[in-house]
Amino acid sequence: MRILYVSTLEQGGPVTHLRALAPAIANRGFDVLVACPSERAAAAYRSAGVAATVLPLRHKSDVIGAARMWRTLGDADIVHTHDRRAGLFGRVLATMRGAKVVHTLHGLPEDLAIRLGRPRDGSPALPPVTRVRHRIHAQVESRLAALGVVVTPSRAMGEWLAAQGVPDSRIEVIGHWMDVRQHRPRARTQRMVIGVAAQLEPWKGIDVLIDACARAAEPACLEVFGDGSQRANLQRQAADRRVDAHFHGHVPNVREHLGELDLFVSPSRAENSPLAIMEAMAHGLPVIATRVGGVAELVDDGRTGVLVEPDNSSALAAALDRLAANAALADALGQSGALRVAREFSESRVLPRFTALYYRIVSSPRGAIAGR
Predict the structure, then answer these.
(1) In 104, 140, 188, 264, which residue has its Cα 20 to 30 A from 83's Cα atom?
(2) Predicted TM-score of the model (pTM)
């Protein structure tokens, strides 16, 4: 069975996921080729023992890129796309070539799940043109889903797809997997070191975290990993609120920095199933996160972490103070989180679901998905 994975991204959660998935599938005897946006990206896959080719898709009307993809599809049995641009081109062209189609929906248009005109904090509602764009995207996604199977790593996203009219038979909920690293809690200093890894965009809620750090009674420093359009604004906010925050920009491997932290926070206003949370849990870090999207499917409130409502800096500050004042509780949450990842999100538990899906759809009649 020949599987072509298509990704148009250089970095981010979808890329992290695919760099684990492609070699794991290849190691199980599948003929795997990854089409990715640059020679640097291709080299990363090749170093993991996976064949890769450069296929840049620069925008959603890149006709030249689409023509290159048509040639790259070749005799693939399955085309598995991993981001919006890849899914738009790949699903249509693969269907025309007679291949079966799988698309992993790692996320939504970034502002789609943020309040949709129902603000939590009194901020202006999303403009009508944005809401119209949301409805159009939902309709397009529903129609594209009819071409094959949509994989989503969270039940919450699967429910959203079903609400858009995608049949249950076209939705497959398969989580990410993560290897657990041995981690000993670092010696706590007078100030707790808080980490966050995210795009610096409005939907990630870093502004709420900075506000919470300013409100918290316990002293802390904030390490911010990631970059985006809001970086300058967030740096200004941290300075104005006298929060000791260090902005590191994009780092190639956040897991290498987790040992420097006491606590990991995900303050997002919208999420699917964030790999950053899983990485922190796998490292044994206590996690505070917002109760959005599929986060509650990862973090069991009070057992493997703490959940708070989004856009609530007071509740987040209280959670920070609680774990800063109780190192034993923080360590216990971190250890429980690592055990949960090892038990429920290991490669041996998740990967067989992908292989079973591939075999099932290849053996199904054209236009149908075989029963589960």
Answers:
(1) 264
(2) 0.85
Fold (topology level) of 2-177+346-363 = Rossmann fold (3.40.50)
Superfamily of domain 192-344: Glycogen Phosphorylase B; (3.40.50.2000)
d(CA 126, CA 116): 6
* CB neighbourhood size of 49 (10 A): 11
Residues comprising the chain, all counted: 372
Nearest to 217 by CA among 319, 311, 302: 319
**Sequence-separated (6 or more) residues with CB below 8 Å from residue 266:** 196, 198, 274, 276, 277, 287, 288, 289, 290, 295
Give me the mean pLDDT over the 292-309 stretch.
94
Which residue shows structure tokens 């009508």?
128
What lies within 8 Å, CB to CB, of 236 at 6+ separation is none
Q: Round to whole Å and give the CA distance between 353 and 11.
A: 25
- The number of helices, as runs of H, and strands, as runs of E, in the chain is 12, 13
Give the count of beta carbons closer than 10 Å to the beta carbon of residue 21.
24
Q: Where are the domains of the chain?
A: 2-177+346-363, 192-344
249-281 pLDDT, tens digit each: 998 888 889 989 999 999 998 888 999 999 999
Q: How far apart are CA 29 and CA 23, in angstroms?
A: 10
Question: What amino acid is encoded at 62 in this protein?
Answer: D
Can you tell me the distance from the alpha carbon of 244 to that of 181, in angstroms, rounded to the nearest whole number? 29
